[in-house]
Amino acid sequence: MSAPLPPLKVALAESVSVLPRGAGLAYEPKFDGHRVVVFRIGGEVLLQARSGRIITAAFPDLADAARQLPDGTVLDGEVVVWRDGRTDFAAVQKRASATPGRAPGLAHRMPASYAAFDLLAEAGKDLRALAYEKRRERLVALTGALGPPLQPVPMTLDAAEAATWFETLPALGIEGLVVKRLDQTYRGGVRAWRKLRHTHTRDAVVVGFTGRATRPAALVLVLPDDDTPVVSSGLTPGVRAQAAAALAGRATGRHGTAIATGVGEVAYECVEPGPTAEVELGTTRHTVTTVLRLRLTGDLDGSDGGSDDSGDDACGGTDADGTINQI
Alpha-carbon distance 215 to 94, whole Å? Predict the structure, then answer.
């Protein structure tokens, strides 16, 4: 079968509360970044977000790196940005939402890395029906020698080593593990993998709000590993006051739409990237995103030196041997 083309549904992971153990399991660090599929097909490079959007123009540095790949290659992985020795999801989202005029300047100041964790096609042949173990061997052989910014994620078969990673990697901004069976095929759109995180809370980037800027009713957020904006549940009075302060002067005048749980599609006002929020994800019939508090982090290199193009995308819609490096 020939190599898959975009839009491609990515494989997903189900949350677990304890580390799975047993024979035939592989463990990888869970990077909280921007999920991206890299296509090197027909002499061209395309970068696809989890939603299916093509975001090649937002990451010119990674597109250049992907041109080192042989034609007919398709990779699945996570885009991360390292700042002060840690991964920084707010910086990744600023990169992902950049317009073509701003992207080169941001790439220079906040270079991205690509943590490749699966090889979906090689030499034009679809590998998704192969076992993970075989895909992993080919992934390391293909990408291991390339070096930054495109590298395979570390992997271990040792549950004890994985447990050590789980306890020590949060210092690098890596908050969990992904667990896969060695005999597993790649199943797009299916939660066949397992993920273990330290907490049920996550950091999300604020991209907009509903209501008035001085009294926002809900926040519109982008979560790690998913570029589709989501609308939070209603804000508590304390969080509403924090949000009003954090969003002051950041409204862009642009508008977008997002899905609110139990309501459907709602309109929201976009804000410049910068503020982040600690959120909790709860599930009844549907996932509910509750904002616990705002993180008043300020601008991320607020002067990007690029053109002030209108419309951010969010409003439109290691070493292979197991060493953890800033990949």
Answer: 25
Instruction: For residue 124, count CB atoms less than 10 angstroms from its CB and return exposed for 0-12, middle for 13-18, buried for 19 or more.
Output: middle
Could you tell me the two tokens for 24? 């035939």
* Per-residue pLDDT tens over the stretch 189-226: 999 999 998 877 888 999 999 999 999 999 999 988 88
Query: What angle (nearest 5°) sits at the alpha carbon of residue 138, between those of residues 132 and 140?
Result: 100
Measured CA to CA, the distance from residue 120 to residue 16 in angstroms comes to 25
Q: Three-class SS of residue 107?
A: helix
DSSP secondary structure letters along 265-308: EEEEEEE-S--EEEEEEEESSSEEEEEEEEE----SSS---S--
* Alpha carbon distance 235, 241 (integer Å): 9
DSSP 8-state symbol, 170: G
Q: Helix (H, G, I), strand (E, B), or coil: what is residue 131?
A: coil
Annotated catalytic, 9? no
Give long-range contacts, CB 8 A cutoff, 24+ apart: 56-59: 57/99, 57/100, 57/103, 58/95, 58/96, 58/97, 58/98, 58/100, 58/103, 58/313, 59/95, 59/96, 59/103, 59/107, 59/112
Q: CA 183, 189, 194 angle in degrees (round to 5)?
A: 50
Out of 9, 30, 134, 180, pick the active-site residue. 30
Q: How far apart are CA 31 and CA 80, in angstroms?
A: 7
With a cut of 50, say whether residue 322 has pLDDT above it.
no
Cα angle 132, 134, 138 (rounded to 5 degrees) comes to: 110
Tokens of 33: 């970044």
d(CA 82, CA 172): 9
DSSP code of 7?
S
Model confidence at 304: pLDDT above 60: no
Radius of gyration of the chain (CA): 19
What letter represents residue 279's amino acid? V
